Amino acid sequence: MKNLLVVEALRKTFTMHHFHGKDIVGCEDIHLSLPQGRFIGLTGESGAGKSTILKCIYRTYTPTEGTVLFDSDQLGPIDLAKATDREILAIRKREIGYVSQFLNVMPRVTALEVVTDAILDMEEGPGTAKEKAKEMLAYFKLPSLLWDSFPRTFSGGEKLRLNLAQAMAKRPKLLLLDEPTASLDDASKQLVKEMILLLKNSGTSMIGIFHDLDFMETVADEHYHLSHGSLKKIANRHGYKAELVK
Fold first, then answer.
1. Given 3.40.50.300, 3.40.1110.10, 3.40.640.10, 3.20.20.60, which CATH number is that of 35-64+84-245?
2. Taking every annotated instance into account, which residue ranges of this chain make up the domain ABC transporter (predicted)?
3. 69: Cβ–Cβ under 8 A, 6 or more apart, which residues?
């Protein structure tokens, strides 16, 4: 099976200038291969570096060392660790989505505009994009009364559902999920599960961070645990064999 993403020897350090330039390790020696249409679930204690890995792939952070090879439709095989800002923006626009627990949108953009703009990035017409946005907001049970409201007024769960709607509406090649069910009730979690499975079946590859192991087991093809800088593949009910990934 062809790999969409291959991470080799990834390391990210942060320099603490207030502490005489001391370097703090966010993650190191990370090796990961993600085949097309598969889902890798990441677990680990808070502060282990799980979010740092996702942010290095998305290039919110620039890796200190290592390679992040992505098979881009637009640019061909490309090392995201060394790609230019223009290349990263192009790839994010059409090929890589990111969902976090926190919403980061323009302050005076409505919920409907947030999702519509995301679909417009995929070169849909304005009318079609708006209708698809409405369908996605309705799917995630965001009340229609909120569609023309500014997201800063939303609850934590509403913001997360809007984040999910924005990223999943684009059906990207690669979707990065940072605790996608953190503030959701059981009914909303079921909606997320069904959409994840739908996207997988249509070819989207995913990496997700989870603390809800029961949920992760229902969607992830492989489970990796991050501890002390090393990823370890964990055996689960699907029968994956535990092994250290080096």
1. 3.40.50.300
2. 5-245
3. 5, 6, 7, 8, 77, 78, 79, 80
Among residues 95, 68, 100, which one has the least CA distance to residue 172? Answer: 95
How confident is the prediction for the chain on average, in pLDDT? Answer: 89
Q: Please report, for the chain, the start and end positions of each structural domain, with discontinuous segments joined by +.
A: 35-64+84-245
Question: How would you classify residue 228: left for phi > 0, otherwise alpha for psi between -120 and 50, otherwise beta?
Answer: left
In this structure, the strands spanning 174-178 and 205-209 are: parallel
Number of other residues whose CB lies within 10 A of the CB of residue 32 = 20
The 10s digit of each residue's pLDDT in 103-125 is 676 678 999 999 999 999 988 89
Distance CA 196, CA 98 (A): 13
Spell out a b/e string for 176-211, using b for 16 or more CB atoms within 10 Å of the CB, else e: bbbbbbeebeeebbebbeebbeebbeeebbbbbbbe
Low-confidence ranges of the chain (pLDDT < 50): 239-246
Q: How far is CA 227 from CA 34, 48, 164, 199, 230, in A?
A: 20, 6, 28, 29, 6
Cβ within 8 Å of residue 156, ≥6 positions away: 101, 183
Q: Which residue do the tokens 């984040």 mark?
A: 163
Using CA atoms, how far apart are residues 56 and 83, in angstroms rounded to an integer? 12
